Amino acid sequence: MKPSNYHRVFAHAYKKDSLLLFSTRYCSKIIIKRNIWKSSQNTELSQESEAILKRLGMIVDDREEEKRSISCSFEELNNNNTSLDIIAVLNLDCNFACRYCYEGDMKGRIYMSEETAADLIDFIRQRFDHKKKALHLDFYGGEPLLSLGLIRDISLQLNQLLKEKNASYSFGLVTNGSLFKRKTAEELVGLGLKTVKITLDGPPHIHNNNRPFKSGTPSFETILLNIKETCDLVRIAIGGNYEHDNYHEFPMLLDILINEGLTPDRIAQIKFDPVIKRSDRFLSPTDFNDGCMSTDEPWIMEATLFLREEILKRGYKTTGIRPSFCSIENHNSWVVNHDGLLYKCPGFIGMKEFEAGDLKNGPSDYSSSHKTGIWNNSECLECAYLPLCFGGCRFVKFVRDGNLDSPDCQRKYFDTCLEALVKQDIRYGIKAER
Ligand code: SF4
Ligand code: SF4
After folding, report:
1. What are the C-alpha distances in Å from 291 to residues 215, 239, 271, 347, 396?
2. Is the CB of 185 under 6 A from ligand 1?
3. I want to staple 395 with a disulfide (CB 3.0 to 4.6 A). Which of 48, 76, 118, 347 is the partner?
4. CA–CA gap between residue 284 and residue 289 (Å, rounded)
5. Ligand 2: distance of its center to the CA of 200 in Å?
6. What's the confidence (pLDDT) of residue 199?
7. pLDDT tens by residue, 262-271
């Protein structure tokens, strides 16, 4: 037996004779005596210890075989994937005037037409073969609830279609939360709504400055009231976008939520992300900042750990450490823009070079434009972080460097943060996400 390529060893917080092992492939962890781990290198393990370490992915029979198997990870995932995931951008309209909104001049009364919605349903029908068991749509905007009629029509038709196929239909909303009233929530839950992601940019004085209504009126109280009215009907996740100057004030939002009765049992998840500065070439949905993006700027690493700790110590759930599965590598994941153009990542919406076909003519070959499999090289296959990285985020790489010529290497980020993240997960009993 040999140590897996995809593990890290950390010192135990206070037991000098013990180590903390973390498998980056399975996100499993174990505390082990130093001498036992040492004997695993000399094949002197007891049968029981060998079986445990093998099951957790810390040791393998053959490291070359392990590399071959990980290099085929996405092939396997794609072949065995029984669900189809679609992000549908319903409009570019919004009732907010967010300070950092990058839709800029493109924002306005631009909506997905009924004809495009019909094409979307045909597109889904064509892709929903007998192996597929579930369809999940996320409705984005602008503000998707400004297209409530379309959400209703699309969902009614998809419920019918998926019933015929003996499969399930569910959908989510990424919304600013201001229009999500109880009556709307009740109706949408009946149509398949399962998750709602609402953005609160910190405590009121920051949020209201960042995300006022178009009229300039503050929006914090309205959103809070809507969350209180609807959180028993649907899983509500709260996201928020912080900046260097204000991230340390975000814990005040967590305390407000608790004081207002939005306790951890009533909120599905909280996650804060940095505002990503983009040029006006990027027309991605207003609240697109979904946490798959990463960055190795030192202050952001510090803010990530700080805010995660504040969220966890108040008992809220947040995302755990998990293997990366960028939707660019997922053959069953599409972003459909309001005009019917297809993309692989919401970040690339509106960029000619990242179009991936359209609803009428179907997908085009995007493998070279998006550099799929850019991580499948000898350096990455040797890297312990590969399962958590798989070449990082193409979107962040393009924003930063203007090209996708090399991976968005996350070695520095994981070298700095992984140990602290794993130890945070242990302290708060967070289970591995796979
Ligand atoms: S390119 Fe980045 S933001 Fe887009 S889906 Fe992949 S990881 Fe997420
Ligand atoms: S891009 Fe960097 S961190 Fe990611 S697998 Fe390759 S070497 Fe490792």
Report:
1. 30, 9, 8, 12, 11
2. no
3. 347
4. 9
5. 33
6. 95
7. 999 999 999 9
